Amino acid sequence: MIKFERFELSNGLKVIAHRDPTSPIVAMNIIYKVGSRDESVRRTGFAHLFEHLMFGGSTNIPKFDIPLEKAGGENNAFTNSDFTNYYLTLPKNNLEVAFWLESDRMNNLAFSQASLDVQRQVVIEEFKQNYLNQPYGDAYLLLKPLAYKKHPYRWNTIGKEISHIEKASMNYVKSFYKKYYNPNNAILSIAGDISISEIELLSKKWFEPIRKGKDIDILYPNEPIQTKQRKKSVFRNVPQNAIYMAWHMPKRADIRFYHCDLISDILSNGNSSRLFRKLVKEKSVFSEINAFVTGDLDNGLFIIIGKLMDNKTMDMGVEAINNEINILSTDLISKYEHEKVMNKIESNLIFSQISVLSKAMNLGYYELLGDAEKWNKELEIYRSIQRADILNTAGKIFQAKNQNTLLYNRL
């Protein structure tokens, strides 16, 4: 059980604080409620571009990393479809440095043409290196628009195409910052050996002077229910043929998300999992195969990816995967398999409550889901799931009409 305190500043910033007397390190995490789903179809990749720009310096702090490193700290960030996350750790005696740094770039990000040009080029090179010039790099650029036709999940966090970032104007960048990088659109979470009263004092000192932004109320378009199986075949210079399969599944806050999460573990978590044991070890259809869920705030995807052995055809691979998911959709898993996957879930949840950084990040994330207290209830939710729940959800998810298949052929 992770104990925490929660309060909200007058400008709308939500603050969550957890005291951990065992650690000399303090972790600070800030979630901004802006991801690639908040972008225009004609201007994609901006949430990710901003992740880079936020390290370019603020009005009072030209280089974000230098004072943090001098204080003995480290930091990083990531962007996904739903939010942008910034996190750092540093010795508890220097915690105020973190408040100073994060509040200043929330309030006074420096906008210069030179910084924009540099970070834009960094993102363009990342797009080319990771998505265009790397084997299988463009797989999700192809798979997501195959699965989504209306929802903004249909483009990747990196962006739909390079030209959107190439054409990024200073005016649009400034308007993006003004709209989303506000205290009332953020969640600040802190974990470490710091009293709640001190966190409240520092939060009010550094963040409360920042003006509240306009409230954001976005209605994301609902993805129409898929009624027909979709398939796309491409040819690329890759070492092995690969199969990417995706099925629409419920959003992160839905109880059926937990069913799908367990199904993904049953299929591919470890060498004793079904897909590895049957399709890699026993039948040698794939050299590697994995299943996972995207866990999006809106309805997400259940994905299976397999790299085919040279002597196996695409049809053999697709049939092998379909056979396994059909078994899962028609037969109850054994009590042993159910207990095994539950034990792994419990182990992962326990480990996630050890480090202060993990605790700060998870408290912020579950607050984004609606209530940080949900993190303490995760194990209870998983334990409530019965074998019949897994069977029923598998039967609904793995319908042929809900299947999207990308055949990634070797030239």
Structure overview:
- With 411 residues, the protein is α+β, with helices and mostly antiparallel strands.
- Helix content is 42%, strand content 19%.
- It is built from 15 helices and eleven strands.
- The strands form two sheets. The protein has a six-stranded mixed beta sheet with strand order 1-2-6-3-5-4, sandwiched between helices. Strands 7-11-8-10-9 form a five-stranded mixed beta sheet, sandwiched between helices.
- Helix 9 crosses helix 15.
- It is globular, with a radius of gyration of 23 Å.
- The termini are far apart.
- The model has no long low-confidence stretch (mean pLDDT 96).
Radius of gyration over alpha carbons?
23 Å
The gross shape turns out to be globular
Helix/sheet category: alpha+beta
User: What is the terminal separation in angstroms?
Assistant: 53 Å
- Name the helix and strand elements from N-terminus to C-terminus, one letter apiece: EEEHHEEHHHHHEHEEHHEEHHHHHE
> What's the rounded overall pLDDT mean?
96
Q: Largest sheet, if any?
A: 6 strands, mixed
* SS strand fraction: 15-25%
Helical residues, percent: 40-55%
Number of helices: 15
Strand adjacency order, main sheet? 1-2-6-3-5-4
Number of strands: 11
Q: What ranges have pLDDT less than 50 throughout 5 or more consecutive residues?
A: none
List keywords for this structure.
single chain; 411 residues; five-stranded mixed sheet; 15 helices
Give the secondary structure arrangement, pairings included.
Layout: E1 5-8, E2 14-19, E3 25-32, H1 46-53, H2 65-70, E4 74-79, E5 84-91, H3 95-107, H4 113-132, H5 139-147, H6 162-166, H7 170-180, E6 186-192, H8 196-206, E7 230-236, E8 242-249, H9 255-268, H10 274-282, E9 286-293, E10 300-308, H11 314-330, H12 335-351, H13 356-368, H14 374-383, H15 387-397, E11 403-410
Parallel strand pairs: 2-6, 7-11
Antiparallel strand pairs: 1-2, 3-5, 3-6, 4-5, 8-10, 8-11, 9-10
Helix pairs in contact: 1-4, 9-15, 11-15, 12-14
